[in-house]
Amino acid sequence: MDATRYTDLNTAQRTLLGPGPSMVHPRVLRAMATPLIGHLDPQFIAVMNEVQELLRYVFQTENELTIPVSGTGSASMEAALVNFIEPGDRVLVAVNGYFGERLCDMAGRYGAEVDRIDRPWGEVFDPQEIADALKKNNYKLLALVHAETSTGARQPDIATIAKAAHEEGALVVLDTVTSLGGLPVKIDEWNVDVAYSGAQKCLSVPPGVSPLTISERARTSLRERKSQVANWYLDLTMVEKYWGDARTYHHTAPVSMNFALREGLRLIAEEGLEARFERHQANAEMLWAGLEELDLPPLVPKEYRLPSLTTPQLSPSVDDAVVRGRLLNEYNIEIAGGFGPLAGKVWRIGLMGFSSRKENVLTLLAALKEVL
Questions:
Q1: Domain closes at, from 228, 247, 268
Q2: 337 within domain boundaries
């Protein structure tokens, strides 16, 4: 083999303004270069404790079982379902975008009887329609998306929806992949049972670990299962012992990724949640105003828009792929197109975590003006 064929990596310095991954703070990258230690080393166990404390802060919860799953956001999504679904359980999913569809897919693979209620992509649910749907069957679980990455829509009234679910005896599973760290996620106040996220969105950590938090109500349901969890790797009855006091070996945790997550969360704690949310909102509003001036009005009504992800509507004269290609090749700016029913109709512009900066907004708007 001619090893000289394989040169040093020399990737472009992109401004990442798509739906993820977001840009990573230099401190996080430095943390990843920290010398490796064993995943049962006392020093790493101390890091594990700190990561859990910081995750509780960002989730705004006291849940003991709050951990980073070893895998990308899809792993914590799967963990949030497989641990609480047994064959024959009835599950209700609120679908208003791609990730609601994925919840249906995953739940069905674990033997659930899946019912769904639907809204067009870009819309949100009235809590009453979810409450009415919950009364139609004896549901084990209600799953819904707080921040729909495919549309840029934020589902409001999570506390009201959770209350309706609990009155009918259902657990609540909430997707916070594109909201955690960028807008309020109040797990305890909203009384959510299971919530999951990803590191590469508003936390601005490279993909590879994914936050998950489990309430005591959900842990009781897990203990009362009649069958074994169908996924060994994500079985929380075992994983919780690794992250709990026993530190019982389960798998080799991604040590460097946990170093990175700790530093990303430490940056959030230093900034403060309220200041961080205000920054995301202010930069989003600057983006929205600029897009309106370019005749690219956001798809989602303002009261339901995510500050972390915007979906501007494209006029027929705009060639989606050509514009995005020019932004990438001429300006090193990445944004994403729509998919599903929104393919070719919107872009997805992310202002998440370290990417949510005024200079990025101004640069993107100036580049769009030139290209268009």
A1: 268
A2: yes
Domain containing 365 — which CATH number? 3.90.1150.10
Last residue of a domain, one of 213, 237, 268: 268
pTM above 0.90, yes or no: yes
Q: What is the pLDDT of residues 194-224, one digit of tens each?
A: 999 999 999 999 999 999 999 999 999 999 9
- Quote the CA–CA distance of 164 and 11 in Å, as a whole number: 49
- Residue 247 belongs to domain with CATH number: 3.40.640.10
DSSP 94-150: EESSHHHHHHHHHHHHTT-EEEEEE--TT----HHHHHHHHTTS--SEEEEESEETT
**Which amino acid type is present at position 178?**
T
Contact 59, 213 (CB under 8 A): yes
Residue 32 three-state SS? helix
| 237: nearest Cα among 217, 249, 223 | 223
| C-alpha separations of 302 from 122, 182, 299, 312 in Å | 12, 16, 9, 12
Tens of pLDDT, residues 131-186:
999 999 999 999 999 999 999 999 999 999 999 999 999 999 999 999 999 999 99
In a domain, 9, yes or no: no
Residue 322 burial (CB < 10 Å; 0-12/13-18/19+)? Answer: exposed
Q: Write out the residue range of the structural domain in which residue 309 sits.
A: 15-21+272-371
Rounded Cα–Cα distance for residues 211 and 85 (Å) = 20
Q: How many domains does the chain have?
A: 2
210 lies in the same domain as 296? no
Helix (H) or strand (E) holding 65: strand 65-70
Per DSSP, what are the bridge partners of residue 348?
Answer: 336
229 and 83: one domain?
Answer: yes
> How far is CA 181 from each of CA 89, 123, 265, rounded to the nearest angstrom?
32, 23, 9
